[in-house]
Each structure stands twice: as C-alpha cells, then as structure tokens.
C-alpha cells in the first residue's frame, strides 16, 4: 500500500525503474497524490545526481538490473503494477529484459512509461544530454534572458515542466484508458516534446506577428518596462506585472506618474527604453520592502522577488501552508494541486535506498528464502 494511503491516486501502484531528474519528479507528484510508487534503485553505489528529496512518499527497493535474476524479480513485481516507467536510453530496458514487450506480455493492462530527453525515435534518440540541451533544441532557451545572450535557467522547464510533469500526466491518462479497455500501452515522454508544447502560446503569437524573435523584445520576456524586474536601493528586486491598462494605471498612480507624457502610451515600443530608464531610477530610491509597503493593497501587480529562504515565510504562502518542513528540518513544498474530497496526506521522508526491498518483493510473491538467496548473491540490496 501507499506509505500514506491518502489522495486521489490511492490504490494505484507504479514501479519506478530508477533514474534521475524528471523520473523521480514524476514519481514524487504521483506519490504525493496517493499512488503506491515503488522505486527500484541499483544495488551499491548511487548516482550523485539523485536528489533524495524527490524520493519522498514512496517505497524504495534495491535491485541489480544487470543480473538476470534481478530482471526476473522486477518482472514479478511489475506483474502487480498498474504502471511502470524508466529513464534509460532507448533500447537499454530491452537489453536488460524489462522492456515494454517483455512487461506487457506478462501484464497486458500495464502502462509502460519511457522518460527521455530526445524521445524514443529521431536522430538524437541515442545522444546524451541535459535540461539545457533539450530546452535549447526545443527553442525555449533562445527566448530566455537579456538581449546579449541566453540565460541558463533552473532545470524547471525541461526536467520538471516538460519532462516529469508530462510523464505523470501520460501515465495517469493511460491508466484510465487501460481500466476502461483492459489494454495497456507505452507512453513516450520526451522533454523536447513537452517543452515544445509549453511554447504553444509563443508560437501562436509569432505566427500572427505579435511576438518578435530575440530576447527582451516582447511583453512577457522582460522587454516591456511594465513587465520586468527592477533593482532597489538595498540590492533587492521587485517584480512588475502591470499588463492590463487598469493595473498599469495603478502602477503609475503609486509612482506619481499619472499624466506624465513619457508614460502616456503603454504599448509604444519606441518609448519603452525611456520608460524603463525612468522606472529603474525611481525604484533605486527605496528598498525592496519599502516599495512593497507602498504598493500594498493596490492593483499594480508589484511583488517582492523573494529568495528560496524568504518565500516560505511570506504571509500568503504561510497562510496556505504552501511549504512545510521535513523530518530533517529542511523546507519542502507541500503536495499540489489540492483536492476537496480526497486531499493528499502529509509527505513522508525519502526512505533509505533498499529500505523496503524485502517488503515489496514479498508482496510480489517471492518467498523469504528466495529473497535471502537473492540478497546473498548481490541481486537484491
């Protein structure tokens, strides 16, 4: 069963065949919402890229997938699952004996997820890469940052947004179909595909001439002086999102710029450089928190740019319990989204590697003697 047994996905069993980045993130999303996610990690040395916090709220077993007996044990476990997923290069799971053909032959209702950067097909399918490579090829990186050069963003866009989130959606969607038809299928989740889909609005605007190629030239890429950030007197920053005319008017009112000819036409792009220079000079006269106090209660869409440490303490985040504290005292985000009828439970700490090896393989039908022998032979850990 799920370590917590709460949430809309309670009763769903998913086997996670190791991996880093987007795969564990997908597993965290599913486990947070109640799915019984069982992560199979390699016996022995762990990848330094594995972030243990992403392993929360699930069970972990250690298996040597390169050993034939390890593959056999995994197949026994997959027999009991609604879905499984892997993050290997295309063809690796097949060579290990746990590819979709092998698994679906045993469990026809199984949903088999495949998480990669480039996808299962195409010229780059076998090439290595990381988040920055995927967002570069999908076109997103070219639009992020100042005019001089692209900025390297956090790996939110590729690994977690275009990757893990779409994998989780694909798995749940395919499980719903399998429950209706009795037939499973393969879900090919490629980060480049997900990132491209996230750029739908930009491609639409580009096709109609409402988006200009290049950074810092458009309304929501930092080009507009009323949708950007400004440095304050103390070195902090405020974020301005005064897109609509009523919000723009509220911004000007607080800054005592109502009626100023430099700000008369919000969308006059020729005037944007002068507008930006004046706003930069104005915001540099007070501290970040002084500006926050001045804009409090207005509709100007002005917010402080909070650090990772500050964000959990903001009154709004605190009131909604957006963040929590794990058993080691580290800040963590609470499950999202929120459900009125089947709320998610409290996330549980990431278990130690192999903490549930014996438990999950007993559930898969292996005897205590079989498990002992596999552990002695280094197949299970």
Radius of gyration: 25 Å
Tell me the helix content: 25-40%
Question: How do the strands of the widest beta sheet line up side by side?
Answer: 3-2-1-4-5-6
- Mean pLDDT, rounded to whole units? 95
Number of helices: 14
Whole-number total of structural domains = 2
**CATH architectural designation of the largest domain:** 3-Layer(aba) Sandwich
Global geometry: elongated
- N→C terminal distance: 21 Å
Major beta sheet summary: 6 strands, parallel
Strand percentage, roughly?
A: 5-15%
The CATH class of the largest domain turns out to be Alpha Beta
Low-pLDDT ranges = none
Describe this structure in words.
- There is one protein chain.
- The protein is α/β, with parallel strands linked by helices and 381 residues long.
- The chain folds into two domains: 13-198 and 326-376, 3-Layer(aba) Sandwich (Rossmann fold); 227-305, formyl-coa transferase, domain 3 (2-Layer Sandwich).
- The chain has helices at 22-32, 68-78, 92-96, 100-106, 131-137, 156-181, 191-198, 200-207, 245-254, 272-283, 288-295, 315-319, 357-363, 368-376; strands spanning 13-17, 36-41, 59-62, 83-86, 111-116, 185-190, 227-231, 237-241, 302-304, 323-325, 331-333.
- The longest helix is centred in the middle third of the chain and has 26 residues, at 156-181.
- The mean pLDDT is 95.
């Amino acid at each position: 069963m799920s370590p917590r047994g709460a949430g809309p996905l309670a009763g769903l069993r998913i086997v996670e065949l190791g991996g880093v980045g987007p795969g564990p993130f997908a597993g965290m999303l599913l486990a947070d919402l109640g799915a019984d996610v069982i992560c199979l990690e390699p016996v022995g040395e762990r990848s330094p890229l594995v972030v243990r916090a992403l392993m929360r709220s699930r069970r972990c077993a250690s298996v040597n997938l390169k050993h034939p007996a390890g593959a056999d044990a995994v197949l026994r476990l997959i027999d009991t699952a609604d879905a499984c997923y892997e993050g290997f290069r295309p063809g690796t799971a097949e060579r290990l004996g746990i590819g979709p053909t092998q698994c679906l032959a045993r469990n026809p209702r199984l949903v088999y997820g495949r998480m990669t950067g480039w996808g299962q097909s195409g010229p780059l399918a076998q090439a290595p890469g990381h988040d920055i490579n995927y967002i570069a090829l999908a076109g997103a990186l070219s639009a992020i940052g100042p005019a001089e050069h692209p900025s390297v963003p956090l790996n939110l866009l590729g690994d977690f947004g275009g990757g893990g989130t779409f994998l989780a959606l694909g798995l749940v969607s395919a499980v719903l179909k399998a429950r209706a038809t009795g037939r499973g299928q393969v879900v090919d989740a490629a980060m480049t595909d997900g990132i491209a889909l996230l750029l739908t609005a930009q491609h639409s605007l580009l096709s109609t001439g409402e988006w200009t190629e290049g950074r810092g030239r458009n309304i929501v890429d930092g080009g507009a002086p009323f949708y950007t950030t400004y440095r304050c007197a103390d070195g902090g920053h405020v974020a301005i999102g005064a897109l609509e005319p009523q919000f723009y008017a509220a911004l000007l009112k607080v800054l005592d710029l109502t009626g100023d000819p430099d700000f008369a036409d919000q969308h006059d792009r020729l005037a944007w450089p002068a507008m930006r220079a004046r706003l930069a000079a104005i915001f540099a006269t007070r501290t970040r928190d002084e500006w926050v106090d001045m804009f409090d209660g207005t509709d100007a869409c002005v917010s402080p740019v909070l650090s990772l440490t500050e964000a959990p303490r903001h009154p709004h985040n605190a009131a909604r319990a957006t963040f929590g504290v794990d058993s080691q005292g580290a800040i963590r985000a609470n499950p999202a989204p929120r459900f009125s009828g089947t709320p998610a439970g409290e996330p549980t700490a990431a278990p130690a590697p192999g903490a549930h090896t014996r438990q999950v393989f007993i559930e898969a039908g292996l005897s205590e003697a079989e498990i002992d022998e596999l552990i002695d032979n280094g197949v299970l850990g």
